[in-house]
Amino acid sequence: MKSKITLFIFLFFLICVKIYSQTTMELDQLIGIHNTNLVGDTIKLEVNTYNAFKKMERAAKNDGINLKIVSAYRGFDRQEIIWNKKYDKFTNELLIEPKKAILEIIRFSTIPGTSRHHWGTDIDIIDGNYPDEKDVLKSEKFEKNGVFYKLKKWLDKNSEKFGFYLAYNNDSNRKGFEYEPWHYSFKPSSVKYYNALINLDLEKIIKNSNLNGFQYFNKSFIKKYISENIMDINPDLK
Fold first, then answer.
1. Highest CATH level, class, for 37-237
2. CB of 185 within 8 A of CB of 164?
3. pTM for the full model?
4. Domains of the chain, residue spans
5. DSSP per residue over 28-94, as a string?
6. Mean pLDDT rounded to a whole number for the chain
7. What is the C-alpha to C-alpha distance for residues 8 and 28, in angstroms, rounded to an integer?
C-alpha cells in the first residue's frame, strides 16, 4: 500500500513539474525571454510562420518581388536595449521632457515584454531588389511613387492568402502605434500569443525597473498603453 501511495505522490509531483514548466515556457515565449519554437539563422521565426513566409516568398519572386525581412524575432533583452537607447537620446540629446519622450518612443517602439516581435510571428518586410536604400522603414516609401510601392501593392493583394496581415493598419480610428505598412503578422500563430498575452498581469511586466523612465509608468499610463498600443490593432488579428 505504501509503495502505491509513494508512486502516486511521485507521479503527481512529475505532473506538477510538467505543468509548471509548460506554464513558465509559455510565459517566457510570450514576453521574449526564451523561445524554443524558432527556426532560421540570423532571421528567426516561429516554425509555422517560417514555413508560410517561404511559400509567400516564392510566390512573390515569381512576380518580380524580392521579399526581404529586416526584422523578425526580437528578444526581451534586445527590445530593452532599443528602449533605453531611445529614451537616452530623447531626454539627454534632444532634451525632451521624460513623459513626452516616452510618448514619442511608443509611437513605433513597444515596451519590452509586450512586443509582437517576441513571438517570432511578426515580420518587417521590404523589397530586397533595392539593396542600397537607406532608412527603409518609412511609410512614404510604401506609398505611390515610393520605392516599395510595387511591393505594397503585391502584399495588399496577396499577403492574406498566406496568413499574413498588417498589424498596425492605416485606420484613422485606430489608436496606439503609428501605421506600419511594413509590419505583417502571421495570423494562425499570432492570435494565440495575443490572446495569451492580454490575459497576463501586464502591469508587472511593463513596470520594469531596468527600463529608463519606468518611474513614469503609472497606472493611468499602463492602462492606456494596454488599451491602445497592445489591443488596438488590426481587428483581423484578434
1. alpha beta
2. yes
3. 0.88
4. 37-237
5. HHHHTS--SSEE-SSS-EEHHHHHHHHHHHHHHHHTT--EEEEE----HHHHHHHHHHHHHIIIIIS
6. 90
7. 30
